[in-house]
Amino acid sequence: MRFLIPAVLILLAACGRLEEVGKAPGFSPLDTTAQHHAMYNVPLPLVADRDHPTEAASLWAAGHAALFDDRRAARRGDILTVVVEIDDRAEISNTTDRSLNGNQSMGIPQLLGIPQRIDRNLPEGASMAEAVSTTGTSSFSGDGSVRRNEKLTLRIAAAVVEELPNGVLRIEGQQEVRVNHELRELLVSGFVRPADISRQNEVRYDRIAGARVSYGGRGRISEVQQPRYGQQIADILLPF
Fold this sequence. Notes:
The protein is an alpha+beta fold.
């Protein structure tokens, strides 16, 4: 019975995957994301003067439609472009050598005649004059190196999902591109200062605090490149 329940769970999971046979991977829903909720949230109305609201025929209008207004993202629901240009290279090489030699000896040749009395009961050749003698040698040698080269160039539109009390903006962006049966997904999130947003309404990824950039995919090619579930479980459970 104890083996039946895991078998049933595995069978149910396999049946769920069988429904995707011959179908392209579906897009992630947007109506449950924070950026969708932020953009559908109705902002407070902006007027130039509370006592004398602007007229519709005037060249001056409050809000983002103003003639000389700053078009940079500044409020919840606004959209800006995140420019991701990563070209990192890292090369680290370390070498460690350590050697230790130690000799220790201890004896009690004279102590009120006590060692001589003990020597009478010791085996022949044993004496308290050289009670303990140790010699130790230790050596260690280590060599390690790290080489990494990463390059990524992307542009993605993100939405302001929250305005923090200190004026910092929390942004989230999601982009999905499906080609045949392979879906490429790009996610970005983090915290941006309004002053770091350029006049073109763009912000570089190195100006985003707590930046989280994820670029991956799912689909037929990604599934083939991954080992089967059974093999992954065996790699975790087997000690050798």
